[in-house]
């Protein structure tokens, strides 16, 4: 992603679980450099990705967010993702056990 002439972040989609049964489901990840947060860029890029999903036969998006990452949770919920799962203490980040929230969104086709 660029803002003006600067790269401000990235977004990625990757296949979920690697099995054919999940071919229409993708995992989404997004990162914005701290200097570009709070400007509505995250919301705009997520909306664009959601809009483009039908072109790639994606009907479900999943996001995996650390439970303590309130800005990311707020961002995903603001574009229609819902909380679909909660995994307590499944990760260790900086020596601290962290919970993981799974968010999901069904993508309408047309």
Automatic annotation (TrEMBL):
PANTHER family tied to this protein: N-ACETYLTRANSFERASE, UPF0039 PROTEIN C11D3.02C
Molecular functions (GO terms): acyltransferase activity, transferring groups other than amino-acyl groups
Pfam families: Acetyltransf_1
N-acetyltransferase domain residues: 1-108
Protein name: Phosphinothricin acetyltransferase
InterPro entries xrefs: Acyl_CoA_acyltransferase (IPR016181), GNAT_dom (IPR000182)
Transmembrane annotation, as ranges: none
Signal peptide: none
Keywords: Acyltransferase, Transferase
Disulfide bond is among the record's keywords: no
């Amino acid at each position: 992603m660029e803002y003006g002439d600067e790269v401000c972040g990235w977004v990625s989609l990757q296949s979920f679980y690697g099995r054919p049964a999940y071919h229409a489901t993708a995992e989404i990840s997004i990162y914005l450099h701290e200097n570009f947060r709070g400007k509505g860029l995250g919301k705009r890029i997520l909306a664009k990705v959601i809009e483009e999903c039908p072109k790639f036969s994606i009907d479900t998006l999943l996001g995996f967010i650390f439970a303590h990452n309130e800005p990311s949770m707020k961002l995903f919920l603001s574009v229609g993702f819902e909380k679909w799962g909660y995994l307590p203490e499944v990760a260790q980040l900086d020596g601290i056990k962290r919970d993981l929230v799974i968010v999901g969104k069904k993508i309408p086709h047309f």
